[in-house]
Hints:
The chain is of the alpha/beta class.
Amino acid sequence: MHFHILTLFPEMVMDGLGTSIIGRAVNHGLLTIDAVNIRDFAENKHNRVDDYTYGGGAGMLMQAGPVYGAYQSVAGKTEKKPRVIYLSPQGQTFSQSMAEEFAKEEELIFLCGHYEGIDERVLEEIVTDYVSIGDYVLTGGELPAMVMIDAISRLIPGVLHNDASAEFESFQDHLLEYPQYTRPEEWHGKKVPEILLSGHHLNVEKWRREQSVIRTAKRRPDLLAKAELTEKEKELAKKYCQPFLKMSQNN
Ligand code: ADE
């Protein structure tokens, strides 16, 4: 996978993604990340890439020319036209299933806006996907791009040491992950659940599944609508979740 980030703050994204698991994946050649500085494509001697908005209004807007120049510097070199993701609170909300879809691509371009946004004309011309990371407004698209790159990268084979852990994670089967424990067996008077020490693999699996259902019912009942539950599990969920009770009575 090749990630390209069009940004006014290349050091922010490169520093942020250069450490930990993603940094190691880059060092191992599993993925590449490069940042293109939009300012390098400024069309005036002052290196300015923003200007006032036509029609008035507060704030400055990034100009179409430099953004297009940065885009061309990447897309002009690739065989296929890569998808271009514009990070914006106006986009579709990012999710695990979107991460899985993007992970299938060979090349992705992230366009990070700043100031009040980007001239609409260049967006119309190059953007294929508008993506938000949640219903709040950030100062720029860099953090959202880093969030997306992290979530997509960990799905690429070899990036996580233990490939199985990419499977058994939150949102698998639309259920949250069960609680987990490590040594010591007792901490602050709290004991690790007996069943996990039993060595009985089947019972451990059963307990974990139940805990996933209970935890989802308590913390994210909205996810249960999509989860595939047995009748017994539905009963269990009802016990822990009032909204789910109402929902299933309506059905
Ligand atoms: N840019 C500013 N806020 C954002 C958000 N919530 N998601 C994606 N891009 C953004």
